[in-house]
Design goal:
Length: 148
């Protein structure tokens, strides 16, 4: 891992929750290095980045998800205890139950061995709650779809 640590949790796109307050560069909080306006611009670009890649490629991104899957499989097979963002089933973490949600987790021989809960300020928690609402709405819509 390099000297930059920054993660997102939640869904994709507008449902994404970049954890700006936890982002570090060389152990220094990113909030001490950049203005709020610059951080807000980076958050917006992060949320829109996937769509931008799809538009530029004319297809879905495949290299980064493939590389991430390979990294996760290697972490599980070699019991590395690697902390990475994953879609994991929540059973009380972040106060959420009975849903899969993008969170940080420790991967080892047992698969998802621990979900890492990050302390959030009120703004980040509000973004997380919005992401949960959107994802639950999508889940509800999918349940209502009847196969023909």
């Amino acid at each position: 891992m390099g000297s930059i640590q920054a993660f997102t949790i939640g869904g994709h796109g507008d449902e994404m929750v970049p954890l700006v307050k936890s982002a570090m560069v060389g152990g220094v909080p990113l909030t001490k290095m950049l203005s709020k306006a610059r951080l807000d611009a980076i958050v917006e670009r992060t949320r829109k980045g996937g769509g931008e890649i799809v538009q530029l490629l004319g297809t879905s991104a495949y290299y980064a998800p493939g590389a991430a899957c390979a990294q996760m499989v290697e972490a599980i097979l070699n019991d590395r205890k690697l902390i990475v963002p994953v879609a994991a089933y929540l059973d009380g973490e972040y106060g959420l139950k009975d849903m899969y949600f993008g969170v940080l987790a420790k991967l080892g021989r047992g698969g998802v061995e621990e979900i890492i809960e990050i302390d959030m300020d009120a703004e980040e928690r509000a973004a997380l709650d919005k992401s949960v609402e959107i994802i639950r709405g999508t889940m509800s819509a999918l349940v209502q779809v009847k196969p023909s």
